[in-house]
Amino acid sequence: MSKGFLVSLEGPEGAGKTSVLEALLPILEEKGVEVLTTREPGGVLIGEKIREVILDPSHTQMDPKTELLLYIASRRQHLVEKVLPALEAGKLVIMDRFIDSSVAYQGFGRGLDIEAIDWLNHFATDGLKPDLTLYFDIEVEEGLARIAANSDREVNRLDLEGLDLHKKVRQGYLSLLDKEGSRIVKIDASLPLEQVVEATKTVLFERMGLAK
C-alpha cells in the first residue's frame, strides 16, 4: 500500500469483533500486509487509563455527557499518538471501535444530541473517517447471551446496562448503516465464526484491492 488504510470494527456487545480480528490477522500477515490493531477506548497509556474510568462497574453514577467526553478525550490521544503515525507509515490500521460507537452508544443509547456528537468527533479527529467500517450485526439477546457464557470476559459497566439501552445502540448502528452505506458494510455476526471471518476477509480484500 502506498498510503495507510483505516478500518474500524463496530457492533453491539457480544458481536464477536475481537474473535474475528484474531482470526484475520494471520491471513493478512501471510499477504505481507503491515497491520496495526488497536482499540477504543484505550490503545495508548492515557487512553487505557481513561478506559478504566469509563468501564469501572462501580462508576454507575457517571453522567452520559461525562461518559461521552471521556471517550472523546481518549479518541484524540489515541489518534495522535498511535493511529496517525501508523497511517502515515502506510500501514493497515484496524480499530476495535471508533467514531460510530459514540453515535450509537451515547447518541442513540443515551439520548444525547447527535449533532453535538458529530461535532465532537470531528473536533477530536480533524475530520478523519475510516476508509471502511465493518459492522458486525447480531440480535441483542444473542450478543448478551454470548457475553454471559464467556467466563473469561471481565464484566464492565456497560454489561450491567438494561436490555433497552443495548437495543437502542443496535438501532443506532442500523441507522448509521442506512446513512453511510458506502463506508459501512454489514456482516452477519450470528453465523459461525468461520463464515464471519470469510465474509469479513472478502469485503476487506475487495476494498483494499488484495487478491483472495
Automatic annotation (TrEMBL):
Family: Belongs to the thymidylate kinase family.
Catalytic reaction equation(s): dTMP + ATP = dTDP + ADP
Function description: Phosphorylation of dTMP to form dTDP in both de novo and salvage pathways of dTTP synthesis.
InterPro entries linked to this entry: P-loop_NTPase, Thymidylate_kin-like_dom, Thymidylate_kin_CS, Thymidylate_kinase
Keywords associated with the record: ATP-binding, Kinase, Nucleotide biosynthesis, Nucleotide-binding, Transferase
Organism for this UniProt entry: Streptococcus oralis
GO CC annotation terms, alphabetical: cytosol
Pfam families reported in the protein's UniProt record: Thymidylate_kin
UniProt GO BP: dTDP biosynthetic process; dTTP biosynthetic process; dUDP biosynthetic process
Top-level taxon: Bacteria
Matches recorded under NCBIfam families: DTMP_kinase (TIGR00041)
Enzyme class name: transferase
HAMAP family in the cross-refs: Thymidylate_kinase
Entry EC no(s): 2.7.4.9
CDD domains: TMPK
Ranges in coiled-coil conformation: none
Residues annotated as domain Thymidylate kinase-like: 9-198
Name of the protein: Thymidylate kinase
Binding site for ATP: 11-18
GO terms of molecular function: ATP binding; dTMP kinase activity
